[in-house]
Amino acid sequence: MNASGRKDMKSVKVSEEINMTKLKYQRETETLLGRLHLQDKLQRKLSPADFLKVGPPVKQDNEVSEKDVAYTFLQRLMMLDYRARYIPVRQDSPEVSNSTLVREVFTEGTDDDDFDAFCSTNSVFDQSNLRTHVHPMDVQMAVFHCSDSFFKQNMITKLSQCQYALPLLVPDPVTMDIECPLWTFRQIRKTWKMSEMKDDSNVVTMKSMSICKAETPMVSFLRLGSPSLSKSQLMNTLINDRHNTFFHRNCPGSTKSRHLMDGVAEIAWYCPAGKPNDAFTDCIAFCNLHGDALSFEKQREILTDKSSVNVVLVPTLEKNDKSSAVISALYKCEKPLICLFADSDGGAVEMRKGKYKMGLNNRSQSEVSEELRETIGKILSVSHSFFQLESMNKVCGIKVDEEDTVCQKGKSAAMKIVGLLQGIEVSKIKDTYLPCQGQLWKEWSKIHKELYRLKGNIEDDKVQKEQKLMEKRQEQVNVSCSEPMKMFIESLSTLSGKEKDYFLKWTQILIDALSTDDLSSILQTYDTKWAEVLALKKRHDKTELLKTKQTELNKISIKLQSATFGLEHIFREMGQIYEAHESLQKPTKSGPTDWSKYPELAAELMISGHPMELMDGDAGHVPLTWISGLLEEVIKKLGDKRVFVLSVLGIQSSGKSTMLNAMFGLQFAVSAGRCTKGAFMQLVEVSKEMKKDFEFDYVLVVDTEGLRALELEGNATLHHDNELATFVVGLGNMTLINIFGENPAEMQDVLQIVVQAFMRMKKIKLSPSCVFVHQNVSDIGAAEKNMDGKRRLQEKLDDMAKLAAKEEGCDAEFFSDVIAFDVQKDVKYFAQLWEGSPPMAPPNPGYSESVQELKTIILSKAKDCAGITLSQFKSKIQDLWKALMNEQFVFSFKNTREIAVYRKLEVKYGNWTWILRSNMLTIDNELHPEIKNGKREAVELTYLHQKLNKTYEEIQKEMTKYFDDDREKDMLVQWRGRFEDKIKEFRDELVKGVKRKLDEVIQQKKACKKLYDKKAEFENNLLQKSKELAHKLKDKTRDEQVLKEQFNSVWSDLVKQLTAGTKPIEDINYDEDQSTVLQDLGFEWSLVNECKIGKYKTMSHAGDYSHYVCLSKQSSTEGITNGVRQSDFPSEEQPLIRSLIDDVEKQTIIQIKQRPVASTGYSLTYLQEAANTVKQKVTDFESKKKYALKKEFTVDLSLYIFDRAWTWISESHKEFKVNNDAQSYVNSKEMQFYRVFRNFCKGSSSAVVLGELICDKLKSAIVEAVCNKVAKDLTDTMKSNYPAFNGNRSDLEKHMLKSLAKKGDFNSFIIYIHQPRDHTETYIREEVQNYISTKEGKETGMKILQKNLDDIQNLVSLDLYNATEKVKTNGGDTGMWMEEFSSLLQAKLTFNNICCKNFSDLNSFDFLKEEIEKGLGSIVKQLRSLSLDEMDKSRMKPDQILIDQLCNCCWVKCPFCAAVCTNTLKDHSPDKHKVTFHRPSGITGFHCKGTKNLVNDFCTTLVASDGSFLPGHSEVSIPYKEYYKGGEKFASWEITPDESKLAYWKWFVCNFQKQLEAHYNMKFKERGTIPSAWKSHTDQEAIDSVDKL
């Protein structure tokens, strides 16, 4: 075989060996991943989303199973616990022995034999311990390989924070290719301080930059062969001798075998602190190649090429071995070389320039370390090469992760944007390219806040400010969508998921790079200036110098604010572009300028874990429109999930964000120099295994900018901090209060703000829980110190509670009076974050333990909370912020969620009460016939309660279920007791009401007993006389006309004969009675007559009463004279006269309705009583006034009362007449007995005649029963389905307003304004009539009618059959049959017996039954076409039933605008009166004192203004903002300020301005001038605006 062939064979053999090695390596990798339960993660990588979840608390000290090691490592690493590498492993697998068990080997033999075996090195050792748990660094690298690039980045960032070395060169476990994970370093920033001598003084310079950009010397450590000393351990002594930066063989958990670390090059940086004891004076990178460098040629070449100094560790050096060749090459190159000989003695020797050798044998670690440090320092003190991480991009033969196509695409998009920003001073970037969020937004916010501080002509001032707001929005629109913003939005819209993630990361990275240098220098200047200010303060220096220094500090602060620029500012700009376009309703365009898509884009990011700005700290404002749009999109994508809101408060840079990031794996910015002002929110999903324990799906964390030092800006800052604290405390279900350090002054500032915020929450009925976190405590282990600290904190909180109570105007002695608080459980002490002094100190392990304990506390408290839905969170943001805009926060807060929950409860209450009422109506319908038929002579309350009890118990169960199971049960609990009492009260009132009505029927029955007995006698006599007359004329004629004449000839005599001795009841002569009563009171006939043709019917809602007034009391006794001049009569008296009319009407109508008109008839004395009451009330009113009311006022008011009472009096008297007038009764029977007479004349049998008589009675009974049932059932249908009636009181109000607008009738509006109940009753009647007249209403009514007719027909037929069968069985006569039939029927219908002695000859009951059934069929057929209008004649009327149900509510009027409280409960104390929307006070005649100028202001605007008013006749003015101090009438109302954007009442005032002015004889002028902007509202806009409420 030739040489070429041998060479090929050798090459094939080498290739096979490599493949075998690869296969072996891959199999070992698979085994390792299998042991760690990561086998599927090489393909389906771990991502940040896997760990951005609220999971169970991480195990701290217990051993974990090998399969859980990887996840436990990650969880602890994310919490900044550097002990994550040292997790004790519990061996579960039988083939892997447990290292804690010692194997026992007993030998038999002599003692000498035993001792020989004991000393023998060849004797039995426990070999199983050599293969125990997985090497800790294999765990780290396995997780690294199984993570996607973003999670790798998170992981490496955390490792860096833990001061661990990071993988720089990593062999791929599958392909064996070498990769540089440059991307994973991109989030790491390092800060260090360099000290150098300048002009005999030590100057310290701070540097802070991305580690990828840092140019530092690099020292590479390699080992050749297998020396006995640990290279990694030696490196640790150079960097931080108290922390294992590089894992080495002597670390806890280390094993001899490792798999994934060989060939990995790790890098770490030493960062000096600018102190004399620094190991090195500048930042230095240390690189460590794990494993034998001879085996990893590529890595060795890269490191030796990139390093400034190469340090090589060898056991010993033989001239011709492999190590010698490597050392020789390094020795010959220019790079400095330090060769460490493990087996040689002696100190460092410089063999030639830059080439050192050092022996390690027989030398202490510290001695070697010190000498090596000095040597490296000496080498680096002269010129040397520098290393930059980014240069790894240019190294050949390795794969850099950033070269990935997806990453490059994201980077390319980001670079295009940042390319536009380069060359511009960082502090000007925002003004140039993000103009919407700068001055324009701040000015808009300032003007918007002024809307709650209105002055002068308030509505006009408001309109002007609203116009200015729109102008600012227009300016924002004009400058919006700069080129970088367009590019940003386009990339966000078009890039795929991973591309978008890279794009956002790259954008932040590149933006940070722009501002690094500027920020560093500004921060250094700020620190210096701040130190000067503090020094002056400590000396209590109050000179001008302090003011000057503070001014300079403020200027630096503003500059720092301008230079702070990040991704959050781009999102803020998106929000402002959206708000500007949305408020102007600009049309959308496709592409990057389609502003309507912005919330959706932001929602996707928020769901994926990005923090979103909730409150812009620079402008001090919440962009409500943007936040609402964003959350709506989140709801669309996730559903209306429940969230537990965790708010965090604390002084700036106090470690809040670090704590949250460690606790939940969040991404809040933590760099001290990058504290963007504002509040940010981030969603964290609750993991599957935790969801079963909680009622919410997400934790929503709200992190704040931090409360600033109060010394800087005094009161302005205090107000801002109070605002911020109140806002985030109000939003949170729980608030974490983060206190940093042990400075009592700083702590007091925070506590003052927080306690006041909690005090406000208590007053507005929000009850978040709280936990205090005391960070950076020096000795958290000392229990005594902790107890003392808690005692002092409790004392401070109690002191602050007293101060806050004084400030907020309420009582509180202790903090626990303000909020549920247990100082033992709700205070958590945190260890210091760093274990040692930064920048080289790792995090304190105690810190992560504290984080874990705090997380456990939070989750245990959260278990008891249902959280709130995202839509409720959205509403809460709006409510809190709008209230904060007002100076009177507590009185301005309007809890939209609470209102919505209460309205829903009102609807439920309405449904429950309706079920009870409906059931009671059914009971009424059942008992009424029994009473009328004489079957029941008394109705007891207990009996009615028993009848209703089943329904009541069902309602109670439903209520219990609702209050216990509803998602809002935590909020509903405050009303539970009250509504349970109210439903009981309603039941009792309902039962009493029905008993009262039935008692009246019983009384009427008793009062009319004589007449009822006489009626039976009348009927019997009429029947007898008809029969006798018929027998006389029988067979003589069959001519109808003749028969009629014959009957008439005897009928009148018959009536006279039967009614002899009874007096007919007269009809009422109401008009004459009114005149008589008024003349008897002393009023002239001419005055009364003149008043009768006047406008007394509308006097309750008249606008002007001055024509009734005499300023001289003597002249009031004269007749009608001209009224006083308008200018002389105080306008303030007008509403008082109207109140007099309302009060008198209410009292007298009640008085009249208490009279027994229906049972004893009408009497003139009832009018006399009413007129006397009117006269007395007017006299009492006059006695307190300086003016008199003319006689015509008393006459008009009396006539008005008489008119209001007429309907009730006439109906009651009519009922009395029907039941008591014998003559009317007999006359009503004429046709019935003519038919009897005619039938007898024609020879009809008794069965036919009796059947017809029975059918006559049945018809009226069926009509009555059917009409009552149809009325009740139709009302049921309308209450359930008719929009105006099936909601709560507010819903009814909306429908009435729409109806008024559509009618456009001014008088109807005036009645609605001044007599709301009358209008409501009229509206209900009209709507019922409208419904009945519609096609749907008619069809529904007819269906109900048909069903009830069928039911009654079936019941009568059944009774007829049963009665007939019983009589036939028992052989009874006609009387028995009638008694049986009546008895059965009277349980359902009002049916009086017919005397049967005239039908004794009846012998076929089957024939009678057939006759009745035939007649019944005819009746039912006739009634099937019965008009629904006939229900007006029935006892039950749908409109009256609905009025009783819907008008049984609160009717108290707003003291300013007379809007009626819309609470469904009549007495809803302690809840205050509220109305969904108020209106301009001028529409009620409200005017400026001493003028005739109507007020055009909404009271909801007035209470936010600086104006004041005079309550009643008081001369002391009350500020509108403190309206509740005006007396009970005002204090009983809750009027929350709003922007009063409702178009409805503005439209009304403009549309009916002239009518209003004429009605009240006043004008809308001067301060009451109607703003021109109001006149633009159309009828349809007004109607539509009602739906928005």
UniProtKB/TrEMBL annotation:
A GO MF term: GTP binding
VLIG-type G domain span: 640-881
One Gene Ontology cellular component: cytoplasm
Compartments (UniProt record): Cytoplasm; Nucleus
Coarse class of the protein's main subcellular location: cytoplasm
UniProt keyword terms in alphabetical order: Cytoplasm, GTP-binding, Nucleotide-binding, Nucleus
PANTHER family: INTERFERON-INDUCED VERY LARGE GTPASE 1-RELATED, URG4-RELATED
Family label: Belongs to the TRAFAC class dynamin-like GTPase superfamily. Very large inducible GTPase (VLIG) family.
The protein, known as: VLIG-type G domain-containing protein
Organism: Gasterosteus aculeatus aculeatus (three-spined stickleback)
